[in-house]
Amino acid sequence: MVEIKHIWKTYLTRRGPRDILKDICFSIQKGDKLGILGCNGAGKSTLIRIISGAELPTSGEIVRGMTVSWPLALQGGFVGNLTGTDNLRFICRVYDVDYDQAFRQVSDFSELGHYLDEPVRTYSSGMRARLAFAISMAVDFDCYLIDELSAVGDRRFNKKFKDVLFGEKGDRSLIMVSHFYGVIQEYCNKVAVLDQGRLALFEDTKEAIATYDRVLAGQHITF
Amino acid sequence: MRQPSQEPSLRAALAVQRRVVGALLRREFISLSGRTGSGFLFMLLEPTIFMLVLSLLFIYRGRLEHAQFSVAAFALSGYGIMWACRFQIFRSMGLISSNLPLFYHRNVRVLDVLIARSLIQAASVTVSFMSLFCLALFLNLFSFPEEFSLVVGSWFLVQWYGINLCLLTSAMGALYSMGTKLGMVINALHIVITGGLFMVEWLPVEYRPYALLFPMVHATEMMRDGFFNDFIPTHYDVWYVIKANIILTYFTLCMVLKYMKSEAAYGRD
To answer: What is the domain extent for residue B134?
Structure first.
């Protein structure tokens, strides 16, 4: 179980402190798939980074009762001047995973071939995402944090990735954020809407989407 | 995969820390040595050229007033220490910003990256110092130091100082917009304030206390005492260097902590 308790996040801007996240509380059980909808700049990526532990909240607490992945996104997690395999080797050491087995899985899954021996800075963003998701599958977390699933590779790779994530690893928990409800509608059993720093949790997907539509139309929801 | 499921105990946290620093050390080694090890050869090139040029200059100018004064020992000790400090500083520029993506991994923290980098840099300057030392001995540029323990002791104090400089300038560079520029100034200052280009004995008596304000001048004098022993009088105080290093370490850790608590410290691109 992952428990998010009263998370506040304040960033300092030129016009003084600004609350990005206000009193976010929720928890997910093993196997839960939570989708968080929000517009650009709503604080989705910040929330994901805070849940992963890459960033600390201003106040509040996160209890991680299972292994949580790093935020899987287009950027981050790799050093550009190292090759794909060197990055994999580094991540294997950090997370204490057997390298040889992970390498087989990653080269098989990412289909990057000999590009794995090239520096990551030469990768296109699609290749980078493929590497990131392939490595995260090999490390095998209990809970995956995904920033924009639609960002993962082309349609074929995206399908392959979804097949693994929702098939073979279907019992894992998942928190994903998006500004688009396609995937969330399809796979998530819980949906939340993030707006104005506050999070509203819905058990019913339709209701969440209706709320998100209202947010998109410019009507801020009041709690 | 092992990862503490609940709030990690101290021992578990230390185990993670050790693993992360180990992984970082290997990574730094790869990027420093350039995979084939050619990076180390290039590291040797610069101090070798300096030592040779300085030796030639001194030989050209005549043998100074001191008989049997080994210019190579003077150059190796002076430039070795200057270079050990400056290498730590200039390699630390942009160190944090270029490693920001790593902080996406919860277990990789700023201090881990800084420790790994400064240790590997200290190790590499030590290796090149030792290689040059052996080369000079082999070429008979100087005889084996009479007080070798002073050379080793001085080198340890220099590394302690240098590791601090690496942490300090990289944290400063990431924390303040002027930090990197300030780092360059500190880097340039170390050409003079390490005492590589002069011996305190050569300075007029009334200026000596000013030169001895800088801890690395003491360290250089100490190493030269090891090399020259009684040929040239040296002026240094080991305790002064140790005290200065302790103060510097405290100041450095405060700066790193300040950075770790700041908003900039997370893997946000």
So the answer is: 38-62+70-103+122-265
